[in-house]
Design goal:
Blueprint lengths: L1 E6 L14 H7 L12 E5 L5 E4 L5 H6 L15 E5 L5 H4 L11 E5 L1 H10 L2 H5 L5 E5 L16 E7 L20 E7 L5 E5 L7 H9 L2 E4 L33 H6 L5 E4 L14 H8 L2 E3 L5 E3 L1
The structure holds zinc ion.
Length: about 300
Amino acid sequence: MQVRILGSGAAGAVPQWNCNCAVCRAVRRGERGVRGRTQSSVAVSDEGARWILFNASPDIRLQIESFAPLQPGDGIRGSGIAAIVPIDAQVHNTIGMLMLREGEPLSVYCTEIVREELTLRFPVFKILEHYCGVRWHVVETDRGVDFAVPECPHLRLRAISVRSNAPPYSPYRGNPQPGHTIGLRVEDARTGRALFYSPACGGVTEELRAVLESVDCVMIDGTFWENDEMAGTGVPDKEARAIGHLPLVGAGGMLEVLAGLKKPRKILTPMNNTNPILDENSTQRRRVESLGIEVGHDGLEVRL
Ligand code: ZN
């Protein structure tokens, strides 16, 4: 199985259009040790010909152009993208579907509640009906059932509910329903090697910890360094935990969780532009790396 991080920045990317924080400023100045990042998405494939996208970010066009296997093949029209699996109904994880409206119907795999949000409240599916159309495939959570995407027949996918929040536009904000946010376990049936991808994770239960320990590589939420990181940015009401992200530090934080895992390779993705680990020279970055945890970046490829 091939896995490629298309985008390793959280909502807003790095730099964010209106942000002048230390990281965004450093990227704009071209300073060494601080990378620009597009918004959160990962592509997986069994044989490298057809790909499944986890999330469709606002930067999807740029991400396709930066990775030839997603581009058209020899015909006049085409795409290496076989399917899209949004992990939730957040704007930054789904709006990219609107950029793909010129082609064949989009094959989208998501939970019932995500379909509801994308039909009734942020009606991406309804709008696409006037362009390419959507072929929706239901994704069940927590029933121990795998699903498959026919174009990548060797991959077994499993959706696992994770604690986070419903989108800001949703009537379920503050009261997320099962299936509002999923993580994805992907196993290559030929080798038994597996990935777990969870870019929005508000907490790790014992059940989820067992999933993390069962795979060879974990790509997981590194959005915020600390819970009140957004306090200095003019939007102080956005505490990490309240909007559905477990911060890296603090009691029970993501670093503590990951440091306790024995088996998997551990890669953080995405990171918000305010996160100090994005500066490769920071003490926070050194602390992460000293725990054997990697900071993901756009274009990082893993073979499992
Ligand atoms: Zn910034």
